[in-house]
Write a structure and sequence with these properties.
The structure holds three protein chains of three kinds. By secondary structure, chain A is of the alpha/beta class. Chain A has helices spanning 43-50, 72-77, 95-102, 109-122, 124-128, 139-151, 169-186, 197-203, 221-226, 228-235; strands spanning 5-14, 17-27, 32-36, 55-62, 65-66, 80-83, 157-161, 189-194, 206-211, 214-220. Chain C is mostly helical. Classes of the chains: A alpha/beta, B mainly alpha, C mainly alpha.
């Protein structure tokens, strides 16, 4: 049985500069996979490559179907939700409108409304600010909003770009708990891209280490945690 | 006092013309983030097409709706073939393309239909129940039409999925793609709608101003001013702005000096903008740095 | 003639200097080789080049939009005309006078309006472009401006008994002024003010945090660019011996905009290419189609933007870098493209 996401020999370039040197990895159905790496390793580029935002070569298959080369909006409609770096908030629109936009590909208005209500239960802060301009929300709130917006897409695979970035540790904990719950209860597969090795290794099943555009280590997260090189460089002991 | 009221109504009548063109500008702005300086010329060409249809024997309303439909298609085509290829260039280059379009449309209209003034029929001349001492029948009808288009636009942006998606597209194109919105198609539709509105505007303006290739040139500036004054992101505000500009300009012309009406109006508008940079009813987007 | 903030490699410097010297030499020799009407055309091109330098400073380097700079051109032209006609000021002194007036008006106009976002600034300048011709025709000012008919002055005589025609003399005057203005803006952009201008364009908040008074700087830039336009206007009055309100309608501002974009924003050589374009395009357009020259104009405009979006100067740069295979690693930080 093929994995949910299969990436083979993926390269990505910005103009003449090649950032990904031909990487291969998998995301198994129903798992949480993390892509670790320092700044400049190519983590964000990888996610962008998966959703057709940069020029690529190599193949990306989602549930066996070839998606590399497709347009971003087409890939999104297949059930892949990408929460980009910087959150990608619709700054000039209200919190609720941000959520409604997430539901663009869905047609059942009652379901969508019910989903929004559920999100407000999960994140009361968003509920309180439902009509406030999204650009005025704090970093942590915008991250919650970004994840919620992705949830509105009813995705089977979520790509998250550094969800812990620039957010207070307590809020990060909340967010990671939520992600674990999503994976456990809804079976949503997650591909996380992170610098925060400790927390992400603790909650994920599989891990890959990216260094300057190449995958150097891969394996189950429990093993990666004990790996000497990783411990020294990324976990600090 | 009666003379004053009369002037106000004249100003409102002019203002309705500015307001309706302002709506087309708002439409393009909200769906593409650009102000189309060629909007007036496009509207003018649409009006000529309508005239040709009427002269070919179609009834007014048939010609009307046919023109609106054709303009919609033309708008989409312009977006696809002229605007999209340069959309990644600088803002100034895009503005220059608009001006190029302006020149082209203006010239072609003159070349095909000539520069002599033509009459354009009004569909409201039979509605005698609208008669009143201040405005002509057509002016009342035109104001009504403007308000109709306004309401339709407001409902579209506020309550429909596509309207929401369009607003999202201008707000954040990348995120829009990531939620599955076909951004390029949205832009095309936005242009089509703006062109359609422009056609309506042209057909409302022509009976009063008489049809010639330069009919819309002056109007564009007033419409632009009205849209910015009221708030270019807000259809309601833009329309109100258009009416206000019409009244102010007329009153200034009568009570200060007819030659300086335009200058005085501009000074006033710029002053207002200094206090309210996003327009009177515009939404000032707060950006966290 | 590129603007490089970092020092250029000596070899490239020398090549550039060679090209520039060759060009200046050609410019000086030109009027002796061509017919009088063409000398007149090139005199006007010199005036347009100065105008485009100013507009480029504002739009290319400072990133502010102006649809109404024709107004400052008009102001300069009229200052020159009025001083000559009413006060008998020698024409040469009207040029710095126009510069001063242009700078003052530009700065004063800029102070309140530079705070507006680009769209609103576009409107304000658009309004300026339409308002100024109206004011020039206004009855109350007729004694000064000559109303609809404008002002006519007499053709300047060739001084010192030089063995050249009046047309050629006017050409040389305009050429020298243009070269001076070019050198001035070149030095301006290389210095502190130039860096501040670009910094403010690219990241106003950061620049402000570093102590740059954004509003004053932008207004000053506006003033300097207006000064250039005014000087260009004065040159045109001297060259044509005539100034009238209709020559400064909206179309002039549009023409200048076209010239600066096609020439190449953010480059100084772009001003020259744009000026040549403006000088010859209307005739060229009329030759193609007598009845629809505007369409040709607009079509060429759009075609250029499709094929050469960074303008002629940008296209040339790409071509030259391929021909000379210059190592671009040491080249300047790219300051050219606005967004």
């Amino acid at each position: 049985m093929s994995a949910m996401l299969e990436v083979e020999n993926l390269t990505a370039s910005y103009g003449a500069t090649r950032v990904l040197q031909g990487i291969s990895f998998k995301v198994e159905e129903g798992s949480i996979t993390v892509l670790l790496g320092a700044n400049g390793a190519g983590k964000t580029t990888t996610l962008r490559a998966l959703t057709g935002m940069v020029r690529t070569t190599g193949s990306v298959r989602f549930r066996g179907e070839l998606v590399s080369g497709k347009k971003t909006e087409a890939i999104a409609s297949l059930g892949i939700a990408h929460v980009p770096d910087g959150r990608g908030t619709f700054l000039g629109m209200s919190t609720e409108e941000n959520l409604q936009l997430g539901a663009y590909t869905r047609n059942n208005r009652q379901e969508v409304a019910a989903e929004i209500a559920r999100i407000y239960e999960l994140f009361p802060q968003l509920g309180r600010r439902s009509h406030q301009q999204a650009g005025t929300l704090s970093g942590g709130e915008q991250q919650m909003l970004a994840i919620s917006r992705a949830l509105m897409m009813k995705p089977s695979l979520m790509l998250l770009d550094e969800p812990s970035f620039g957010i207070a540790p307590l809020v990060v904990k909340e967010i990671f708990e939520l992600l674990k719950m999503l994976n456990r209860d809804r079976g949503t597969s997650l591909l996380l891209v992170e610098q925060n090795a400790a927390m992400s290794l603790a909650m994920s099943h599989h891990a890959y280490l990216l260094e300057t555009g190449r995958i150097v280590i891969s394996g189950p997260s429990v093993e990666i945690r004990e790996h000497d090189a990783v411990r020294k460089s990324y976990l600090g002991y | 006092m009666d003379a004053f009221i009369h002037q106000v109504f004249v100003g409102l009548a002019n203002g309705s013309l500015y307001a309706s063109l302002a709506l087309a500008l708002v439409m393009i702005y909200r769906s593409t983030g650009m102000v189309n300086f060629a909007q007036g010329e496009m509207a003018m060409v649409s009006t000529y097409i309508a005239l040709s249809l009427i002269q070919a024997g179609f009834s007014y309303w048939t010609a009307f709706f046919l023109t609106v439909a054709l303009s919609f298609v033309a708008g989409m085509a312009i977006e696809r073939f002229v605007i999209r290829p340069v959309s990644h260039a600088s803002e100034l280059s895009v503005v220059t393309v608009f001006i190029g379009l302006l020149l082209i449309f203006n010239s072609i209209a003159g070349w095909i239909w000539g520069y002599s003034i033509q009459q354009f029929p009004s569909p409201f001349s039979k509605f005698s129940f609208l008669a009143n001492p201040y405005l002509s029948l057509h002016q009342v009808g035109a104001v009504g039409m403007t308000l109709c288009v306004l309401i339709l636009l407001y409902v579209f942006f506020r309550f429909t999925k596509m309207g929401l998606a369009m607003r999202g597209t201008t707000d954040n194109g990348v995120s829009s793609r990531l939620v599955g919105i076909p951004v390029s198609r949205m832009l095309g539709i936005g242009w089509g709608l703006a062109a359609a509105i422009g056609a309506v505007v042209g057909m409302m303006v022509a009976p009063s101003l008489f049809l010639d290739p330069n009919m819309m040139v002056g109007l564009l500036l007033y419409a632009f001013a009205g849209a910015l004054l009221g708030g270019i992101s807000n259809p309601l505000g833009a329309v109100a702005g258009g009416f206000i500009v019409g009244v102010i300009e007329d009153l200034l012309g009568v009570y200060i000096d007819n030659e300086l009406r335009f200058t005085a109006a501009m000074v006033l508008i710029v002053c207002v903008l200094l206090f309210k940079p996003a327009g009177i009813w515009g939404k000032h987007t707060v950006k966290r740095v | 003639m590129q603007m490089n903030i970092l020092a250029m490699r000596p070899a490239r410097n020398r090549k550039l200097l060679l090209i520039q010297s060759a060009f200046v030499l050609t410019a000086f020799v030109l009027p002796l080789l061509i017919a009088p009407y063409q000398v007149f055309q090139w005199t006007l091109i010199a005036s347009y080049a100065v105008a485009l330098l100013g507009l480029n400073l504002l739009m290319g380097y400072s990133g502010q939009i102006s649809l109404g700079h024709g107004a400052f051109y008009a102001i300069g032209a009229y200052v020159s005309g009025i001083l000559i006609d009413h006060y008998g000021v020698p024409y040469i002194w009207t040029i710095p006078a126009a510069a001063g007036v242009g700078m003052a008006f530009g700065f004063l106009f800029g102070l309140p309006t530079v705070k507006l976002e680009n769209l609103y600034l576009a409107l304000a300048t658009f309004g300026l472009a339409v308002a100024v011709p109206q004011l020039l025709k206004y009855k109350a000012f007729e004694d000064w401006t000559g109303g609809f008919q404008g002002i006519t002055i007499s053709k300047p005589e060739v001084p010192f008994g030089l063995p050249i025609t009046q047309d050629q003399w006017l050409y040389y005057v305009s050429l020298v002024v243009a070269l001076l203005m070019f050198a001035l803006v070149h030095n301006l952009l290389r210095g502190r003010m130039g860096r501040a201008i670009v910094a403010v364009r690219d990241h106003p908040v950061a620049a402000s945090a570093m102590g740059v008074n954004v509003v004053v700087l932008k207004a000053l830039t506006f003033g300097v660019s207006a000064m250039y336009l005014a000087v260009a206007g004065a040159l045109s009055t001297i060259a044509m011996q005539y100034v009238s309100p209709d020559s400064f309608a909206m179309f002039l501002s549009i023409t200048l905009l076209v010239g600066v974009v096609i020439g190449g924003l953010g480059t100084l050589s772009g001003a020259l290419f744009g000026a040549v374009l403006i000088g010859f395009l209307p005739n060229f357009a009329e030759q193609i189609s007598k009845s629809a020259p505007g369409a040709v104009y607009g079509f060429l405009l759009i075609a250029f933007l499709f094929v050469m979006p960074s303008g002629v100067a940008g296209g040339l740069k790409i071509l030259l870098s391929r021909v000379f295979k210059t190592n671009s690693k040491h080249s300047a930080i790219s300051t050219q493209e606005t967004k």
